[in-house]
Amino acid sequence: PIPHKGLWRPGRSPGRAAAAAAPPPGGASPGARSPFDRRLKRKQKNWAALRPRPAECEYLRDEVGGGVADRVLDIPRTFPLALDLGSGRGHIARHLSREVIEKLVRVDIAENVFKGTVESEIPTVSVVADEEFLPFKEDTFDLVVSSLSLHWVNDLPKAFREIHQVLKPDGVFIGAMFGGDTLYELRCSLQLAELEREGGFSPHVSPFVAVSDLGHLLSRAGFNTLTVDTDEIQVNYPGLFEVMEDLQGMGESNCSWNRKPLLHRDTMLAAAAIYQEMYGNSDGSVPATFQIFYMIGWKFHESQAKPAQRGSATVSLGDLAKIDKLLHQK
After folding, report:
1. Is residue 96 part of a domain?
2. Do 230 and 294 contact (CB within 8 A), yes or no?
3. Which domain of life does this protein belong to (predicted)?
């Protein structure tokens, strides 16, 4: 069942929003403004969701989903209607209860992720749609959350504007995405191996946003009272091939238009040896680093606290510097 008959934006049904995930034949060509093949990403996520045991590769999604949920729990209110953008199998909702979110709309580009949803007590509705083309009306949701999905969006500023638009005034967006240092060990090992064996290299790890850009992008989209913080998660694997296998199982394989479809066997073996030599642990395993950016932004409302007017202070900074001296005298 679809909640609220007035939920949808005119002229943009869920089906149309899902179809927008990939450019039509003869449409926009790959380039700086469209670095990712969204049709391929949809296939990758659909394939990963239908694996016999998809949960085996979702440890990272569960960990980061819990981090987003913790930030939701820090806000002392109940959200009547929330949107989980790029929800996957429900890695945020599993950490929350009906006392926090009364009803949840889950959106993902890949329809297969909804077939094996992680159980949650929150009533949910699932919608196949693209993050850049949300089919919802303006001022619809009290909360929007997103975990490890927005780093595959071609137009991140547009996606942030869409999120801001569907939020109600005084609504909050809480998200997490991969940062620029993610998988630097894998990236460096593959590049060195290709240079050695093939005389050049192609990108095998997708480009990520820098933390210095996030606050600016959120502010331009209309968000205020911004918070951006970073975290690093390091996972140890037996070797390079296991790293790449788990990335494929997460649906996180590279989908850049300029990716190299196949790597020569000799190049892969050289990359595995370089990975072990440069980054290997004493027990023979190799680390893979995932940098996570967490972000919080609010949509403006008159009731929100405002900064005091310039010149309205009643205590000078010079007086504050004397506090320690006065305390010692007492």
Report:
1. yes
2. yes
3. Eukaryota
